[in-house]
Design goal:
Elements lengths: L3 E5 L2 H13 L5 E5 L5 E3 L2 E3 L1 H10 L17 H8 L10 H15 L4 H12 L4 E4 L6 E6 L2 E4 H7 L6 E7 L10 H7 L2 E4 L4 H10 L3 H7 L3 E5 L2 E2 L2 E2 L4 H7 L6 H8 L5 E5 L6 H8 L2 E5 L6 H16 L1
Parallel strand pairs: 1-2, 1-9, 2-5, 9-10, 10-13, 13-14
Antiparallel strand pairs: 3-4, 6-7, 6-8, 11-12
Bound molecules: guanosine-5'-diphosphate and calcium ion.
């Protein structure tokens, strides 16, 4: 069986990976997760995108929301709010145990990649999930209302501020976590999941050596568009792309990855963009159903990706 690497943000990536592990051996898959959204809150180290992927692959995720644990309660936050704390970042009671466990492991001196491996093992997740880096990187959004952490922009302020710039604090000094560059080099295929190109895939590609490794690898690199018919399926990708002057379309996303992509998978509803992506960006295009509304669609999308990797 070949080795695969996937670059992943949160919900869009997790949905796709659910389909992939149904048809591909998870132990042959390395997932590189975004940690630009990580933050410390109430003294806890929270890693939203790693948790979404972990909970989804462990079968624990709240499918309706796409994040958090299904059936979770919020007694902890309710009580904190009585003590006068802000509770805009929603941490469920079960979810809290994950953040506490991770924080205790980090305090003991483990690296984030080691803590992540421990959480995955205990929840029965068989893919190798690697944070993009063990070093601190924070996605900061510069807006008309000031510069803020991505979570504050998205969750606290509901993505209402016009975006002026996006910055990955600490990315220049950060090193890829152990095993990432080797995995990219040895892979037969690399998948760029349908994730936010600016704040999920962007931070991963900003880590020293990762983009270069993707340009150099003999692996076939296949991306999936998170934008369908000029809009994201969920989340603020359109607002961030607009702020950075990037066309809000599958073409705009492909243009961000053109130097590393062999094939870009777009939704069949966007098939009129295929010629333009191929001729202007020099990337092969495949159009199929990418709106992952059912397990069947997720699996079929994963099959299409495997097919384009194996040729
Ligand atoms: P986040 O951290 O949870 O926002 O996670 P991601 O970056 O992985 O996901 C956000 C992106 O996933 C958005 O740009 C969505 O458009 C995309 N997305 C979510 N569901 C789907 C889907 O069913 N199909 C496609 N093509 N994209 C999706
Ligand atoms: Ca995220």
């Amino acid at each position: 069986m070949p080795l695969l690497v996937a670059l992943a943000g949160g919900v869009g990536a997790a949905r796709f990976l659910q389909g992939l592990v149904a048809i591909f051996p998870p132990e042959n898959l390395t997932v590189i997760g975004n940690t630009g959204d990580d933050m410390e809150i109430y003294g806890l180290y929270v890693s939203p995108d790693l948790d979404i992927v972990t909970y989804t692959l462990a079968g624990l995720v709240d499918e309706a929301k796409g994040w958090g644990i299904k059936g979770d309660t919020f007694g902890f936050l309710d009580m904190l709010s009585r003590y006068g704390y802000e509770t805009w970042f929603r941490i469920g009671d079960r979810d809290l145990a994950t953040h506490l466990h991770r924080t205790m492991l980090l305090r003991k001196g483990l690296r984030l990649s080691e803590a992540t491996a421990d959480i995955c093992r205990r929840l029965g997740v068989e893919v190798r999930l690697l944070p993009m880096t063990d070093d601190p990187v924070r996605t900061m959004i510069r807006t008309e209302a000031g510069t803020m952490h991505f979570q504050e922009y998205l969750v606290k302020r509901g993505a209402r501020d016009a975006v002026l710039a996006v910055e990955f604090l600490g990315a220049k000094e950060a090193k890829p976590s152990p095993g990432i560059l080797e995995a990219i080099q040895e892979a037969e295929g690399v998948i760029i999941c349908p994730s936010n190109p600016i704040v999920s895939i962007g931070p991963i590609l900003s880590i020293d050596g990762i983009r270069q490794a993707l340009r150099r690898t003999r692996a076939t690199v296949v991306g999936i568009s998170p934008i369908i018919m000029g809009a994201p399926v969920k989340g603020p990708a359109d607002k961030l792309m607009r702020g950075l002057g990037i066309e809000i379309s599958a073409f705009g996303v492909a243009s961000l990855y053109a130097d590393i992509l062999d094939t870009f998978i777009i939704d069949f509803r966007d098939s009129m963009l295929a010629k333009r992506i191929e001729s202007e960006l020099g990337v092969n295009v495949m159009a199929t159903d990418t709106l992952m509304t059912s397990f069947e669609v997720k699996k079929r999308l994963a099959e299409a990706v495997l097919h384009s990797i194996r040729g």
